Amino acid sequence: MMTPGRRSSTFTRLLRHGFTDPTAAERLLDSAGLDLVRNDPVLLEALGATADPDLALHGLVRLLEAQPGPTAHRELVDTLIAAKPLRDRLLGVLGASAALADHLARHPRDWEALVTYEPRDLHPGVEEFERGLAEATDPVSLRVAYRRCLLSIAARDVCGTTDVAQTAAELADLATATLRAALAIARAAAPDDAALCRLAVIAMGKCGGHELNYVSDVDVIFVGEAVDGADEGKALRSATKLASHMMRICSETTVEGSIWPVDANLRPEGRNGPLVRTLSSHLAYYQRWAKTWEFQALLKARPVAGDITLGEEYVAAVEPLVWKAAERENFVPDVQRMRRRVIENIPVAEVDRQLKLGPGGLRDVEFAVQLLQLVHGRTDPSLRSGTTLDALQALARGGYVGRDDAAGLDDAYRFLRSMEHRIQLYRLRRTHLVPEEEADLRRLGRSLGLRADPVAELTREWKRHAGVVRRLHEKLFYRPLLAAVAQLAPGEARLSLEAARERLVALGYADPAAALRHLEALASGVTRKAAIQRTLLPVLLGWFADSADPDAGLLNFRKVSDALGKTPWYLRLLRDEGAAAENLARVLSAGRLAPDLLMRAPEAVALLGDGGSGLEPRGRAHLEQEILAAVGRAENAEQAVAAARGVRRRELFRTAAADIVDSYGTETNPAEPDQGALVDRVGTAVSDLTAATLAGTLRAVVRDGWGDTLPTRFAVIGMGRFGGNELGYGSDADVLFVHEPWEGVEEREASEAANKVVAEMRRLLQIPSADPPLLIDADLRPEGKSGPLVRTLKSYEAYYRRWSLVWESQALLRAEPVAGDEDLAGRFIELIDPLRYPAEGLGDEAVREIRRLKARMESERLPRGADPKLHTKLGPGGLSDVEWTVQLLQLQHGWAEPGLRITRTREALAAARAAGLISTEDAATLDEAWVLATRVRNAVMLVRGRAGDTFPSEARELAAVGRYLGYGPGHAGDMLDAYRRTTRRARAVVEELFYGA
Question: N or C: which end of the chain has fewer CB within 10 A?
Fold first, then answer.
């Protein structure tokens, strides 16, 4: 028994040496197995130097107790006291790995594997590990021998004899030896099968890259051939049996546990494909069917077991295909999209703890390095390494990556891999999650040499390195492009111009020479402006590359920068407000309309900042107030309307930019999933803007010609999409003009004044200028183009009472006051309500007339040569189909259902569903088709800068429309198929509801 004073002293010493449970440690030290060494200060020092002294002491006691007799026990104790190398290695392993402590307790003589290190033992290779596994003849003995070899690797690792890269290489070499041993056991169990075939095992993934973890799936591909004279079918069946048995030997759980899963899912067709293929079958698949990620995976292919000659033939055959992968269309977006998909599939609760797959994790480094290898390895064989860190160093030597960036990533990758190794080593379980328990974090931190405050230091270092990876992994691809043209940092290897062009082509640039000229103009020199551009451009280039037209994005950025480069706020805005830079990149590369609007007044780029509020649409009242104030300050009507058109141009840009950003999504805000909300937002914003512009123009014209008061009341009634608040970017303003002479004013005088107002409004809104024109279309007026542009309210009343046709009643369903005298507009609406919502609905003849008109329009107005199924307005299931169906319901039931008395198509459709006039399913089908067709029209205008009712035929424009609609690169065909499918379903509903089929 220890005295209380002695106990207190031991207790204190244990605390000082890092024990967290000194009471339990005292009990263990008092155990019979440690009676010879319990007072040895060297032992206590050695235990205190481990990652987890409590765990190390517990494992040592178990090992001593497991010794087969007194002699073995004394031998271990004597060696422990006398041999510092063994003491450090054994206790280091016991303090880092509970799983290896369990192994030693089951196999108590295996500690002898750690006693001596010959020089050749310091860095063993495949041959040494094969000798260590040579006596294994079955799955159980193979596991024991494997763990014995693993002991020596772990000992070198935790003692710092090997660094993380060497440890990973040793683990890969041990895996190679293990696969060979497992295959030998399988061949011995089935000699007849072995005699029929040649079987090569190709290591993939981290094993193939010579950078394996402690516990990881070992990825493989099998290649089989018949031996001379053997039937190929039988040979492949035999090879498959051998391969399957080999996988089971490694993967299945026995009394000694398992080794690791062998995963063959990287083979052609994955799990659905045959486990073993011939070399020619592999090649046929890769040449015809393989996806980009499969060539990326082949970067690490390495023959490791079985018929090595056949394996080398396989690698030699696929290698040329690997280095052509970067020539594939959408290569870079495919790789980047795959990386994003990996992140998206991580459970939310695990994202912040993921060392491998999360943002700033190991996979970010590996993806970035592999991307650069595939682009530049075509012409530079020095880059063709399957090992991440070796490839990164080669990229830096060749100037493909900046030296500082490469050093930062190398340091971060080593730290994160060390964390991953030590986390897995503890239980020998496959995991990439940072633990949450403080005890686990403490052990992990101490194992990495962080001793002052292990948990806090570990967290700080982990976050710092992850931040470095997050910051650098995407810029890694773009930053050297600037070094190629900016002529900076003498002495550093830089990307050659040819390599820069190669990289730009891989990014999707059609004119890499022009892109390099733009980069040189933006980033060269020693000015503060050039320095900020060099900071911004690596990120911007990535965002441009994520669009369908990177060339246009970079050219437009140069134009904006040339126009605003001398203003103090422009580059500061882009540098300091992350959202502004990304928003600008999206807007400049999404098509022609938004950049054209911006170039006419580049200062509107400020709207892209403001913490996101700059892109919020402004209401009609706010817009009208601003425009009327500008009109009031102008000297004449032309200046006033020019000011109003300037506001309109700025607000069109705001609306288009918000639409693009919401459709594409950003790094912090995903794309808006509700397509209908996007359509409504644009329709309302453009309609409000058009109404406010007309109100300002009307005020300017009246003031310039008549002072404060026109001789007649005057109102503008919105029609068509304008009245329905559904205007698109390229829509004309459909209107009716109505006036009513003031008391005492002759009708002739009033009519002349009203016509002059209309003529002047149309002229001023179409004067050629930097601002887009606003076209006024009054063709929906009584008598169409043959009738007067302006009528009095009485004239409208007389016409509608005597001559009105059913199509005019239908057109009036969209009538809504937009500008001018509110009282007059209100009385006009009262006048037309009985026409558009006729009592008791439409008669049979009127319904037949509407159907005849619709059928004639479909046959006569469709442009020659247009594909009807892709025409958004007149094609089957398009806008016209949906709108005429909804309007027929309004004409038939609006008198009885107040909810139908609305000008907006989608709201009227919802009201019809609520009233039971259409099923929920049919309403959803029509709504989906209408929203999609409207989105396509908006996209065409954004992309081409001019209105269109059908998909573009030019490939880049079609891809840009697809990108706006949420389709990734190379999926334009999917977009067209989806459009046809959606409108086909809608047409079926129209046939039933509108035509009564």
Answer: N
